């Protein structure tokens, strides 16, 4: 493809690319060894919306904020969340019930052996669906920490049956226009077996749940060396891919900045999606979300960096000549096929991203503009009182 044509495709791709921010990415977090409070971290829902709005203001591609019901809407108050979103020029994105933090969920939530615990978990999912309706968000995203730590302690098949029943009940409660996303993760917090451990299990459960359930791929939820883009390709083929939680990892679910360890991995995922979209002439209808909590980097800057990296990798994937790629593959021209993919990966799209931003009245360099704005210093000064009273997780 001529470079000019490739650039036009990349600009069009940037125009349609949006990535959702996680409310928990602006709050103080830590590792299991300790928590590292930051002076500018958000403690209230209002502060989370305000911080997320900064990311959108400077990048233009993050108009939605994902919420975790237990952390963000503990009293079930959808109205104030809606008002906050409006005030900050954002929308509420996907809604996550929290089925892993309360002591009752020690042995799982929807797959738990005890009926009252399962009932409580399902009630929380139904409440999330109700809140999603009030907040006009279309996605309820389920991640379960369910599993066990020791062989012999759990009836794996019975737990699977219970999960299926619960997901069917959750699906039946969906309101018009809503979708249910089922996320998988191989381990942690469970260290022997996890009830939804991989994409195949998530796919089977989503299928059993009902027609509006899809699989959510969190890039950090795979073993090292796993071919994530193949999983993406298969889920697309099955029409069962719903969306992503993006982050990068080196060892496990490390929550590192997207593209910081392996940008080629994210590019390959985007290339699978864009090849599929080019083939069908239709968008795949996927939700892109960031699922990162930064303990060491300043939180807003880390999110700006993430959004920019996502845009760049998405733009690079749009510059692949998919028609040429298809011809090379059909004729088994391996070198040419690989070069077609790699050239698009190596070409620098940063000037193009700057051009796109300037054309939309956004700063060419979001990080520099954010720093110059003095927002982080002001936030740190205004949020001092939280530190006096002790930081909370979300
Ligand atoms: C679990 O590791 C996860 O990826 C799920 O998406 C949760 O909702 C999120 O992280 C925050 O704990
Ligand atoms: Mn996730």
Structure description:
With 394 residues, this protein is α/β, with parallel strands linked by helices. It has a single domain, classed as Alpha-Beta Barrel (TIM Barrel). It is built from 16 helices and 12 strands. The strands form 4 sheets. The chain has a 5-stranded parallel sheet with strand order 6-8-10-11-12. Strands 1-4-5 form a 3-stranded parallel sheet. A two-stranded antiparallel sheet has the order 2-3. The chain starts with a helix and ends in a 5-residue tail after the last helix. Bound molecules: alpha-D-psicofuranose (PSV) and manganese (II) ion. The site of manganese (II) ion (MN) has 5 residues, from loops.
Topology (elements, then pairings):
Layout: H1 3-16, E1 21-22, E2 30-31, E3 34-35, H2 45-59, E4 64-68, H3 69-72, H4 78-87, E5 91-96, H5 115-134, E6 139-142, E7 147-148, H6 156-172, E8 179-183, E9 193-194, H7 199-209, E10 213-218, H8 228-237, E11 241-246, H9 263-280, E12 287-290, H10 299-318, H11 322-330, H12 334-346, H13 350-359, H14 366-373, H15 375-382, H16 384-389
Parallel strand pairs: 1-4, 4-5, 6-8, 8-10, 10-11, 11-12
Antiparallel strand pairs: 2-3, 7-9
Helix pairs in contact: 1-10, 2-10, 2-14, 6-7, 8-9, 9-10, 10-12, 10-14, 11-12
This protein binds alpha-D-psicofuranose (PSV) and manganese (II) ion.
Manganese (II) ion is lined by residues 143, 183, 218, 245, 291.
């Amino acid at each position: 493809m001529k470079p000019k044509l490739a650039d036009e495709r990349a600009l069009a791709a940037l125009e349609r690319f949006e990535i959702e921010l996680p409310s928990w990415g602006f709050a103080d977090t830590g590792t299991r060894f300790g928590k590292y409070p930051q002076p500018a971290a958000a403690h209230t829902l209002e502060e989370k919306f305000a911080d997320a709005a900064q990311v959108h203001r400077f990048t233009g591609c993050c108009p939605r904020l994902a919420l975790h019901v237990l952390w963000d809407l503990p009293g079930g108050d959808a109205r104030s969340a809606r008002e906050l979103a409006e005030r900050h020029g954002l929308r509420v994105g996907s809604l996550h019930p929290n089925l892993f933090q309360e002591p009752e969920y020690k042995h799982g939530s929807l797959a738990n052996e005890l009926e009252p615990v399962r009932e409580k978990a399902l009630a929380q999912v139904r409440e999330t669906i109700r809140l999603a309706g009030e907040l006009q968000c279309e996605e309820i995203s389920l991640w379960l920490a369910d599993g066990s730590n020791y062989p012999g302690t759990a009836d794996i098949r019975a737990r699977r049956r219970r999960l299926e029943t619960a997901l069917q009940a959750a699906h039946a409660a969906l309101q018009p226009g809503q979708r249910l996303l089922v996320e998988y993760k191989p381990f942690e917090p469970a260290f022997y077996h996890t009830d939804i451990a991989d994409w195949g299990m998530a796919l089977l459960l989503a299928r059993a749940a009902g027609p509006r359930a899809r699989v959510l791929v969190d890039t950090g939820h795979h073993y090292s060396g796993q071919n994530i883009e193949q999983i993406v390709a298969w889920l697309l083929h099955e029409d069962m891919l719903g969306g992503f939680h993006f982050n990068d990892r080196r060892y496990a679910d490390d929550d590192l900045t997207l593209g910081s360890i392996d940008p080629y991995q994210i590019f390959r995922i985007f290339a699978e999606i864009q090849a599929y979209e080019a083939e069908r002439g239709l968008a795949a209808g996927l939700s892109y979300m960031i699922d990162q909590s930064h303990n060491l980097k300043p939180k807003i800057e880390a999110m700006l960096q993430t959004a920019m990296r996502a845009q760049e990798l998405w733009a690079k994937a749009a510059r692949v000549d998919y028609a040429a790629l298809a011809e090379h593959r059909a004729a088994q021209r391996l070198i040419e096929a690989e070069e077609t993919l790699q050239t698009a990966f190596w070409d620098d799209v940063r000037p193009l991203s700057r051009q796109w931003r300037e054309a939309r009245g956004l700063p060419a360099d979001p990080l520099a503009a954010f720093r110059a704005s003095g927002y982080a210093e002001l936030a740190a000064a205004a949020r001092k009182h939280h530190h006096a009273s002790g930081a909370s997780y979300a």
